[in-house]
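All the exercises in this workshop are built on plain-text protein records. Sequence and backbone structure share a record, each on its own labelled line. The question running through the whole workshop is how a given chain folds. The record below serves as our worked example for the rest of this section.
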Amino acid sequence: MRRFLAFFIAFVAIFTARAQQLDSIRISLLTCSPGPKVYSLYGHTAIRCQNLTRNEDVVFNYGVFSFDQPHFVWHFVLGQCDYMVDAMPWKAFVREYQSRGSSVTGQVLNLTSQESLALFVRLVGNLQPDQREYRYNFLYNNCTTKVRDVIEGIVEGHIEYPHLEPRNTYRQILHKYTANHPWAQEGNDFLLGENVDTVLSARAEMFAPEYLMNYMAGAVVRVSKTEVRPLVSLTEMLVNKSEHPVPSDSYPSPLLACGSFLLFCLFVMLLERWFKIMWWGWDVLLMLAHGIAGLLITFMFFFSEHPAVNSNWLIWIFNPYPLIGIPIVIKAARKHQYTPWHVINFVILTLFILFSPWIPQDFGDMVVPLALSLLTRPISYLLSYRVRERAKNVQVAMPSKQVNKKKGKKNK
């Protein structure tokens, strides 16, 4: 790696000097189609710089990260991941995306020689150690938006993008790329809140590589009121997509899995009524899972810098409160005593299910079946308490009736 960097620095110096004399720099926006891995589901964007005279070809990539960074997982959960820009030879870039089975589309930018050189110098400057890293944000500051911003920063004038309809939300765009991966889609829906369900501007839609490519295709550079030129002069398919389609998840769908779980919870409730017992061990398992999911939602809501997680309405039902209730439920179940915990839980879950259609957030396919599954527990306990109360009332009433009968016989 060090040898390559040393070679690249020397290459940059030669490249820049020659570019100033030969006017042979060609800049292309590269758009890579989605790949099979989770981190590649949304595609990728990069910039290609060519010196056509000297046959020098390099790609600048703002999507570089390393799992070997200290405390990577912790920083990822907090939304504090730092990505970096890197450079690699064009042939190495092609091999990587061919191995993924992704296509690569190149859009040659219609830049002046001064703009092309300025863009190249800007990219090289971003490779410096003090400028190389940036705080990554999946929706607002990613490998695609960084490329757009650096292009906008060097044009003489400003770029005007076409008005494409219809407008989408962030969630709708993400769903297009996760359609074959429903569990990844449900994971996104579980964590992302109301803010990703607002209709986007044209600029906001450019966080997705293929959307940026489409906007660039119809964009123009306006230098003055009379001087306008198209931003893209040529579009070409540089790497053909593999004939093998992106594989879909082979697991049961989230809706089927959660629906089956709901049926199982109903079956447990019926068995409890049949045998007139309460399986508090089942409550412990459910409340542990419920509470752990609630800890995740609550932590992301209050402490994570990830976009839109702090507007998640799921915190209504997914928070740590079930962990507090575990000892209360166990004690009440073992002593066959009434506890208001089940009434509180019943009210919380019922209100959420009833009002969920009017909450301005798309909850996906999992949330309502899971909420209904959790609701079976307080319903089962409340039914059990009601049966016991009736039994007690009957036992109290029976002796009094017997006493009245004996008194009646004596009077006779």
